[in-house]
Design goal:
Elements lengths: L11 H14 L3 H16 L3 E6 L8 E6 L16 H9 L3 E4 L17 E10 L2 E11 H4 L2 H51 L6 H11 L11 E6 L4 E4 L9 E8 L2 E9 L14 H39 L4 E6 L2 E5 L1 H7 L19 H12 L5 E8 L12 E12 L2 E10 L1 H50 L3 H28 L7 E3 L2 H17 L3 E6 L6 E3 L1 H18 L9 E9 L3 E8 L6 H4 L16 H11 L3 E5 L7 E7 L12
Parallel strand pairs: 16-18
Antiparallel strand pairs: 1-2, 1-5, 3-4, 4-5, 6-7, 6-9, 8-9, 10-11, 10-14, 12-13, 13-14, 15-17, 18-19, 19-21, 20-21
Helix pairs in contact: 1-2, 1-5, 5-6, 5-7, 10-11, 12-13, 13-15
Bound molecules: adenosine-5'-triphosphate and magnesium ion.
EC number: 2.7.13.3
InterPro entries: GAF (IPR003018), HATPase_C_sf (IPR036890), HATPase_dom (IPR003594), His_kinase_dom (IPR005467), HisK_dim/P_dom (IPR003661), HisK_dim/P_sf (IPR036097), PAS-like_dom_sf (IPR035965), Sig_transdc_His_kin-like_C (IPR004358)
Organism: Desulforapulum autotrophicum (strain ATCC 43914 / DSM 3382 / VKM B-1955 / HRM2)
Length: 672
């Protein structure tokens, strides 16, 4: 049926073909709707055709219409809400025929105003999904023609299929753009990470490189420019082409929660030239992430620099400290200063100094407890005093080091740690000990003086009477009585000699030093002891240095010291098998500074427990007075020298006397 007698109508199949071609070729929404509506209207001579599209993921709500008759439906789809009948088409997906004569629609503006005309509302459906509406106005008698309605329904389906395709393509395009942006973002962060992870790269280089990398991640790398300005340090990092221009994206840089600068990216172009550019949403997002990352890197680097500086300050401070300082963390010594190394040896990454076998047996219990507490971090400050016996002095002799250690909780490299403060108390303790000994000696002196006073006078009376008794016995040839008297005399002499020793000890006589070769008193003592030693089966070996410098010595006093040391050695070897008892005596000059006398024996030596106490007055392991060594030490100290325990090359005990040579007394001789 021809709708308009004046014009020729294109057949349904031809119209269908033409519409289909349009739908395949066109990929832009608006030209598609316009062309389809016009072609449909003109080919089939409809009064009006309107196409309205519902909003989809990538299709916005839009409409296109063309009409030769009354414009009753123009703008209908632009204003919402639409009449209920049309919304029903969208909801139910079934075509709707609108004829004015029907009473329900008489007041509705959608209904045709011309009698004899009707409207067909067809839903644009594809796979059950609603894409919009095709609205056609045509003579009412045509509505009754099934083929025309079926044709329009099919056109509607094709339009929906086309809209679906456009939507899918748009989705693909969006996904592809997003993927591209994401890959640019990943590339940026990958390259940036490579720079930041280089350990020695400074912050300035990192930031400059970070800025240089930005344009490559933008849509137009050839035109993009970037700048980072840090206001707090007045630093500026830019790409060479940077000048502030629009379009521009600016992001603040936050460090420790404070805005310290701005990252700006723009497309600078001379006025009137260059393309009109904008930043994509994804690019703005990326720049936001870059700003955040830069802030974090500045924060981290500045933190590290501050930490390094504070560690350096700590090192400077501790390296010059006079006490030993160490840091214990996770059961390991992680830092120690030179003074600490001097006391405990090189860094061993082990806190075993408190558990070490070298700790004096009497102190082990407390050092273990100390160690347990500090490694549990269960304290604020804690102190311990202990002695270490395992450490060797430079000459290889065992050395006792008295240590005072204070532990305090601290933080090191942002983790809990223990700060150990250690003082070598050996010297102060030695002085303390010396004072204690001197104190003891003073009291002993007072007692001895009293005893001497009370005993000496009656004793000299006893001696005088004994002399008379001896004479009397001799005159009478009383042999037995004479023997008894001489025994009493010898016992009395012993009492006198003990009193004299105690007196000497308590009231040391003034030193009478003269310039003398140290070998002289040494040799005298050896000669005096020789007979007794031979009788006890002790072999004496001597190696006395030649051309020793003269020293200012009180010769008899040094002789007394030597006799004491020789007697001690001989007594220590009393129970040894004959042929194994040896005493070696050597003298020598060291560095032209001091003369050294050594007395070594092959006896049992002195155990760790006794070592510390043998110089104490009255300390003895024998049935004797225990003042021999304390007298020796005092005499040597009076000569400004030292008397110490030393290793013995013969396996027993060894004593070393060092007496300074006064420079004016040093007379260089051959071989010295
Ligand atoms: N050569 C040695 N070998 C082993 N032990 C020694 C030696 N010399 C000293 N001692 C130890 O040192 C202690 C103290 O010695 P010191 O000479 O002071 O006193 P004493 O010998 O016991 O008594 P005194 O000397 O007054 O008669 C001794 O009792 C002994 O245990
Ligand atoms: Mg002795």
């Amino acid at each position: 049926m021809n709708l308009c007698r004046g014009k020729s109508q294109t057949s349904i199949p031809d119209t269908f073909k033409a519409i289909s071609r349009l739908l395949i070729k066109e990929s832009r929404l608006e030209p598609l709707l316009k062309n389809v509506a016009e072609r449909l209207k003109n080919a089939r001579l409809y009064d009006g055709v309107f196409i309205w599209t519902a909003e989809k993921a990538d299709i916005q709500e839009t409409a296109w219409g063309t009409s030769t008759g009354p414009l009753y439906a123009q703008g209908l789809f632009m204003t919402l809400p639409q009449p209920a009948c049309i919304r029903g088409v969208a909801t139910h997906g079934t075509p709707l025929t609108l004829i004015r004569d029907e009473p329900t629609c008489s007041s509705c503006p959608v209904c045709p105003i011309c009698p004899g005309w009707a409207s067909l509302v067809i839903p644009l459906l594809f796979k059950g999904e609603f894409y919009g509406i095709l609205f056609v106005t045509l003579p009412s008698e045509v509505i009754a023609v099934n083929t025309e309605v079926a044709f329009l329904v099919e056109v509607g389906e094709n339009i929906a299929a086309c809209l679906n395709r456009m939507n899918q393509e748009a989705l693909h395009r969006t996904t592809a753009t997003a993927l591209l942006k994401r890959s640019l973002e990943l590339e940026y962060f990958h390259n940036f990470a490579r720079i930041t992870e280089q350990p020695d790269t400074d912050l300035e280089t990192i930031l400059q490189r970070g800025v240089d990398l930005i344009p490559a991640s933008m849509d137009r790398p050839d035109l993009a420019a970037a700048a980072l300005v840090l206001n707090d340090t007045h630093q500026r990092f830019t790409t060479p082409n940077f000048t502030r221009d629009n379009p521009m994206v600016e992001n603040p840089i936050f460090v420790d929660g404070k805005a310290v600068g701005v990252l700006t990216v723009c497309y600078p172009s001379p006025a009137g030239q260059g393309p009109e550019l904008t930043f994509l949403k994804e690019e703005e997002k990326l720049l936001g992430s870059i700003s955040l990352r830069m802030g974090k890197i500045i924060e981290r680097k500045r933190g590290r620099i501050a930490l390094e500086r504070s560690e350096q300050r700590f090192r400077d401070l501790t390296n010059n400290a006079v006490t030993g300082i160490a840091i214990l963390q996770d059961q390991q010594i992680v830092f120690q200063n030179p003074e600490y190394t001097k006391i405990f040896g090189p860094l061993s990454h082990s806190p075993t100094l408190f558990l070490d076998a070298g700790v004096h047996p009497d102190d082990k219990k407390k050092t273990r407890l100390f160690h347990e507490t500090i490694t549990r971090y269960d304290f604020t400050t804690l102190c311990v005093d202990f002695r270490i016996a395992s450490l060797l002095s430079q000459d290889g002799t065992p050395k006792i080091t008295s240590v005072f250690c204070r532990a305090a909780m601290t933080e090191f490299r942002e983790k809990p740690a223990v700060l150990l403060n250690v003082m070598d108390m050996t010297k102060p303790r030695e002085l303390e000990n010396l004072l204690r000994i001197q104190d003891k000696m003073t009291s002993l002196g007072r007692v001895a003086a009293g005893i001497a006073h009370e005993i000496r006078n009656p004793l000299s009376g006893i001696n005088i009477y004994l002399k008379s008794l001896e004479k009397y016995a001799l005159e009478r040839n009383a042999e037995t009585e004479g023997k008894i008297i001489s025994k009493i005399q010898s016992a009395s002499n012993r009492i006198e000699s003990v009193i004299k020793r105690v007196m000497d000890f308590s009231k040391p006589g003034e030193l009478k030093p003269i310039s003398v070769d140290v070998n002289k008193p040494v040799q005298n003592a050896i000669d005096l002891a020789a007979v007794t030693l031979r009788k006890s089966g002790v072999k004496i070996e001597t190696d006395l240095g030649t051309a020793l410098p003269l020293c200012r010595l009180d010769s008899p006093m040094i002789e007394q010291v030597m006799l004491n040391l020789i007697t001690n050695a001989a007594e220590a070897m009393k129970t040894l098998a004959p042929g194994t008892k040896t005493i070696a005596i050597t003298t020598q000059c060291l560095d032209r500074q001091q003369v050294v006398i050594q007395v070594e024996d092959s006896g049992p030596g002195i155990s760790q427990i006794h070592r510390e106490r043998i110089f104490d007055p009255f300390y003895t392991t024998k049935n004797s007075s225990g003042i021999g060594l304390s007298i020796c030490q005092r005499i040597i100290n009076d000569h400004k020298g030292t008397l110490n325990l030393h290793k013995s090359r013969l396996g027993g005990a060894g004593f070393m006397i060092q007496i300074p040579v006064k420079q004016q007394e040093f007379k260089p001789a051959k071989g010295v």
